[in-house]
Specification:
486 residues, alpha/beta, FAD/NAD(P)-binding domain, 2 domains, 19 strands, 15% strand
Length: 486
């Protein structure tokens, strides 16, 4: 591929920066990153709630080409992670390529000219040869539809839209939801609130975090002996990847892991009535396994209450559940996750024949290797359908996808478009393999859409995905504009 190809990258989060850096390293400068926010960083810029952090070890949740030997702790917090991505953007001179406060409304393919038209909110338009979506799966907060929710007069916000001026000191606070953000925020808020009410729909498996700070000696050794840091990273990778065996239904490892977690919860929670609320009945891994060292301790405080009755309505200053008096609260924090079933929304992506990606995905989202969609030439997705992990680092998956896209861009082809038959065969394989995982067990999770189909997760170990994406199989591509696939 020559440098005169004009490339649009949508999103300046982790995956967009990874793509941009590798384009730079390949000698390709003709790209623009469109970022809806006024800062880079994606989810790590937007999620600033107390104790926000990553549940993947930092030595693994970082780019392989830009190691950071001085991570402060095993699982770093939001500010340090964001600073790392800012450092990467500055070091590789990506910032001049970013167009901030630029929300992409539409990307439409022209069969006549063979390129894409990008339309931004506000009306700006531009034409690009290649479009790469890097918006990810966790970028649009999900807010539950609760009767009267819009009548509440106290402070109310989603964890991903944290109010920096909010002071929880001495307040009665409701947290709705008990997923990953709640596990991180509950111990922090419980320390300050007068009383905390946690509204839980169903319990999650919570494993120990064991978040140890790294010593100065360890940081110096990793800086002076890069091979040590590299070997540690690979050790972390293989430890994490080996856990996938516990995510297959009916396997001894699944039972062993679930039983181990069950014993851990019982050691942490002694009161029987509370244990009944906190001990899941589904196998570990059906929902994402959460990590915390202080969540269970926080839930056993006298000034913390777990409410498992469904919320019926919200009034100006209280929350009502089944057959109970309305509970007055001074603030409501929604820890209700993200909209993950409508991937790439609200962007409108229009491919061949005027078909939109939403129409193509009306039954379920799907992409060949999570990267390519038939009927959408020279359009790629990073962190697309069925590329999420429950056991390893998504950065590893994104680096695999970026390498694959670079292979496609380097090829002397007018367009890159996967065939409908290859995409269908891939989806059939995914469906068969995913049906054998614990994610299909009886639990609700963001891994699935409304029909119960798993649309977010990859079906195997991350190492397998690496092998599957090492080089494109050109026989799986359309020869739509007369180029040779040999």
């Amino acid at each position: 591929m020559t440098n005169d190809k004009n490339i649009a990258i949508v999103g300046a989060g982790m995956s967009g920066l990874c793509m941009a850096i590798q384009l730079k390293k390949a000698g390709i400068d003709s790209f623009t990153i469109f970022e809806k926010s006024d800062r880079l960083g994606g989810t790590w810029f937007e999620n600033t709630y107390p104790n926000a952090g990553c549940d993947v070890p930092s030595f693994l949740y970082s780019f392989s080409f830009e190691p950071k030997p001085d991570w402060s702790q095993k699982y770093s917090r939001q500010r340090e992670i964001l600073e790392y991505f800012r450092h990467c953007a500055e070091k590789y001179e990506i910032i001049p390529h970013i167009r901030y406060s630029s929300s992409v409304q539409q990307a439409a393919y022209s069969e006549e000219t063979g390129d894409w038209s990008i339309v931004l909110e506000g009306g700006w338009q531009g034409r690009f040869d290649v479009v790469i979506s890097a918006v990810g799966q966790l970028n649009r907060p999900a807010l539950p539809e609760i009767e009267g929710g819009d009548t509440y007069t106290g402070a109310a916000f989603h964890t991903a839209r944290w109010d920096a001026d909010f002071d929880p000191q001495g307040k009665d606070i409701a947290i709705i939801g008990n997923g990953a953000s709640a596990v991180q925020i509950v111990p922090e808020i419980a320390e300050q609130a007068n009383h905390l009410y946690l509204y839980q729909r169903s319990p999650n498996w919570v494993a120990p975090l064991n978040n140890k700070p790294y010593s100065r000696l360890w940081q110096r050794l990793c800086a002076c002996v890069p091979l040590l840091a590299q070997c540690y990273r690979w050790w972390l990778f293989w430890v994490c990847d080996s856990r996938f065996v516990a995510f297959r239904q009916g396997e001894p490892a699944t039972w062993i892991y679930t039983n181990w977690l069950s014993r851990y919860v019982k050691r942490q929670v002694r009161e029987r009535s509370l244990l009944d609320k906190l001990l899941p009945t589904y196998p570990a891994g059906c929902k994402r396994i959460l990590l915390s060292d202080d969540y269970y301790a926080a839930l056993q405080r006298d000034d913390v209450s777990i409410v498992t009755d469904p919320i019926q309505s919200i009034s100006a200053g209280a929350i009502s559940t089944d057959d109970a008096q309305p509970q007055p609260v001074d603030a409501i924090i929604y820890a209700t996750g993200f909209q993950t079933s409508e991937l790439l929304a609200p962007m409108q992506i229009i491919g061949r024949g005027g078909t939109s990606l939403a129409e193509h995905w009306v039954e379920q989202p799907g992409a060949y290797l999570g990267i390519l969609v038939p009927g959408f030439p020279n359009f790629f997705t990073l962190y697309g359908p069925n590329t999420n992990l429950g056991h390893n680092s998504i950065i590893f998956m994104v680096e695999c996808q970026v390498r694959y896209i670079l292979h496609c861009l380097r090829a002397e082809h007018a367009t890159t478009e996967v065939s409908a038959s290859a995409a269908a065969d891939y989806q059939d394989e995914l469906r068969r393999r995913l049906e054998r995982t614990v994610w299909m067990a009886d639990c609700s999770s963001w891994y699935k859409d409304a029909s119960g189909t798993i649309i977010n997760n990859w079906c195997g170990p991350a190492s397998e995905y690496y092998l599957r994406t090492r080089t494109p199989k050109w026989q799986h591509f359309e020869n739509s504009i007369g180029y040779s696939l040999d």
